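Box S2. Input/output pair 1.
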Amino acid sequence: MADAYEFWRKPEADEIYMVVGWRQWADAGSLSSGLPQYLIQQTSARKIGQIRPDGFYIFQVPGLHDLMRPVVRFSHGFPESLQTQQNEFYYTGDAERGLVIFIGDEPHMDVERYIQSLLDAARVLGVKRIIGVGGVYGELPYNKERTVTCNYSMPALKRELDNLAVIYSDYHGGASIGSFLCHRANERDMEYVGLYGFVPAYEFSMETPGVGSVRIENDYRAWLGILRRINFMLKLHLPLADLEGKSQRLMGVIQAKMEEMEADHPELGVRDYFDRLEKEFHEVEFNPLDDVWEENLRRLLNRMDDVNLDPPDDPAPPDDPPNA
């Protein structure tokens, strides 16, 4: 059977890593779909390949036609475009470190072949480690650091992951595409780390009909927390300044929304609700500065070891000048 993946460019670097995400079930805060796309734009990554959609998607299910069918556009009877599922590889980096960014549509069927194709593609590219990203909605304060849970494919990875301020997953239930990938990577002795951010979501409809729920569709604060960990773990230099600004502005927008709800629906007790959430919430902050200082100091000492700091021997006295 022909490979499901294809590349028209094979990048080369001393170390290559891969970040993977999907338009999928575990996509709270658009962590799995929006974050990889954001990375592609911020790094000007170039498309280098794809997994072909053949055999991975259902054309239609009665009653769910619009959710599964490809989208076609006609103009005066002529087909202008056909939008099908996409599974694309992008690349950015230099001669020392490279990053493959994969963004895809979660398959409807034949997940085994899909995952094996993704792992085969990673092997062909020489990928050292795969990082999967996803999001889960939860009831937590919007103004605190996002909790990040983690799974991993190889026991040897845990010691390194202990430095990332993560909570190791004890989840038991229906598998996400990332969890499936984690298990299959283990079987093939390939490094995989899954990082899942918890994204704030609040349900007020039980208290006041018509108010509904509040969810963060693009949780830039969660994106930032995940990217900071990826930067530290892989020793990358992915740009964060723009995302830091987006995160700060998002907090302001949510704060204004909560104040508006408090004024319009005082019966909800919004302020008391968030005070209680903050008191009950255990914030796990990721502060890698101590480790960064330690690493930089080690590098400095190593460079000093390569330099001869001993004073030079006294130079030999010059020969006596010749007699006049």
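Box S3. Input/output pair 2.
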Amino acid sequence: MPEAALSNKSAKELAYLHDLYVATDWSERFAELVDKNIKLPDDGQFLYVEAGTGNHVIELRGKLDEKVEVFGTESDAERLNIAQAKSKAVNAPIHFQNSYPHKLNFPDAAFGTVICDASFLATTRLLAVWQELFRVVDRKGNVAFVLPTAGSFGEFFSIYWEALYALEMTEMAAEIENLINNLPTISDVEDVAANAGFKKIEVNTSTELFEFETGDRFLRSPLISDFLFPTWTGFVPEAKQVKLMRTIEKVINDSNEGHNFLLTVKMTLVTATKN
């Protein structure tokens, strides 16, 4: 059993792991999708919601004209501390704020352009976040919103179901069905944006593959063990989690027969305007 899957890490430790392993692979791929499909503002105020440990917003700060005032929010205080330290170290002036994406501490219609990284946000919060973005963007403003959508993680969910079956824990299979159904479809995200009031809604999707040499490498990956597994395994009693992880590792190794285990993520960018 990989120790990482059951480790109890502090918020500070998780923030550093996010910076080392999530921001440099997972978040970079979302950032590339944004960069390919948005036009940066020439003036006014620019907001980056859920800026993580700051890599992308700092990079964008370097591309923007000096007269553009840049703001960044992050709901995790420890990640925010890292982002602030980075921006100060490279002299990238950004106004950072610790706030939740569905409850931003800004006045109405304050920003011309808003980017939101929703890749780790609960899907139940999506409408509330879109409504808050609608509130803070100005009447001619535009929004870019990134998140994983339906079709993501399918390889793992299949393995997960097989592991539960092998352990005679099939009464929990409905929870896997919920995990699959909770991933929004393209139509879902379009509807949410429209219900929040946005117009000219466009969607771009990139299929990304994450590779792991073995089941052990998969379960030890900080992206998996510390950031995705808490959601995926929250319904499993703690006393059964060690056996479950061992079984998942075995199923991965047996099913891939020496080949890398591939995890597919449908990375989706939704862009929209207020008018």
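Caption for Box S3: The longest helix spans residues 11-37. The first strand starts at residue 45 and ends at 49.
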